[in-house]
Amino acid sequence: MKIKTLNVKSRTENLSLIRDFINSSATEINIPEDIVENIILAVDEACTNIIKHAYKYSPDGDILIKVKPSSTKFVVSIIDNGISFEPDTVPEPDLQKYYRQRRVGGLGIYLMKTLMDEVKYISKPGKYNEVLLSKNIKVAKKNAG
Amino acid sequence: MAEFSTSVKDKGDVSIISLKGFLDAHTAPILETNFVELINKNRYKIVVDFNELAYISSAGLGVFMAFIEKIRENNGDIKLASMNDKVYNIFDLLGFPLLYEIFKSEDEAIKKFLEK
């Protein structure tokens, strides 16, 4: 199956473009709608984190999104050239604590881990960061039987 | 461009914010402004109607966390109403039903405010 790519600048206004790209790429290979929705949200969260933390809202950073579907997995690779990120330093969200501290953080990462089967970070400081989001799929074979 | 809009109306002491479209990191500031304006007017009894909301990300969920304490300190609350299953599932995954009352309809949420 074909690899598809989308290159966008690090602006929150591009999130809808990113969601549309994931939607059409996943729908094209007949992934069920509820799973497509989960993948879209996970990718939105990953890109929001890149815009906020890797590029600190600077609008001209590059985000490269590659969709790599196979017969068993739908993998989305998201590459940026911003500040490296240590996902293991982010604790699991504690809503009661947030309530007291009037802040939120880590909700996005928690959602990504919950909605996807695998979330992997590759960081080459000073070069690039890559997030790999992977969802196991069963694509219905055409012309079966 | 993600389409998102809100409308605010008052029913007695209760203010209702109705959401429409896609609530993400780009559009969340629109909802933040709604909350700030209501708080500035000392209107702390707030129902958020999700009936026409198609999508929410954690940036949207964060808006509710940002204002809830201030609102409850002033004897108010944010009550949530009319969520579709997809949006509810995201709230549920993050444990929001423990912190917020969620109602099937806007009317039920308003009624809860009037009970007290």
Textual characterization of the structure:
The complex is a heterodimer of chains A (145) and B (116). Chain A has 145 residues and is an alpha+beta fold. Chain A has a single domain, classed as Histidine kinase-like ATPase, C-terminal domain (Heat Shock Protein 90). In chain A, 36% of the residues lie in helices and 26% in strands. Chain A has four helices and five strands; from the N terminus they run E-H-H-E-E-H-H-E-E. Chain A has helices at residues 15-28, 33-54, 95-101, 107-115; strands at residues 4-9, 62-69, 73-80, 118-124, 128-136. Chain A has a five-stranded antiparallel sheet, with helices on one face. With 116 residues, chain B is of the alpha/beta class. Chain B has a domain at 1-52 and 65-77: STAS domain (Transcription Regulator spoIIAA). Helices cover 41% and strands 32% of the residues of chain B. Chain B has four helices and five strands, in the order ββαβαβαβα. Chain B has helices at 28-40, 58-73, 85-93, 106-115, and strands spanning 4-11, 14-23, 45-56, 77-81, 102-103. Chain B has a five-stranded mixed sheet with strand order 1-2-3-4-5, with helices on both faces. In chain B, helix 1 (28-40) runs parallel beside helix 2 (58-73). Chain B is globular. Chain A binds chain B through residues 12-13, 15-16, 19, 34, 37, 41, 44-45, 48, 51-52, 93, 95-96, 98-100, 102-104, 107-108, 110-111, 114, and chain B through 1-3, 22, 24-26, 55, 57-59, 61-62, 65-66, 68-70, 86, 90, 93-96, 98-99.
Q: Key terms for this structure?
A:
heterodimer; A: 145 residues; alpha+beta; B: alpha/beta; Transcription Regulator spoIIAA; five-stranded mixed β-sheet; globular
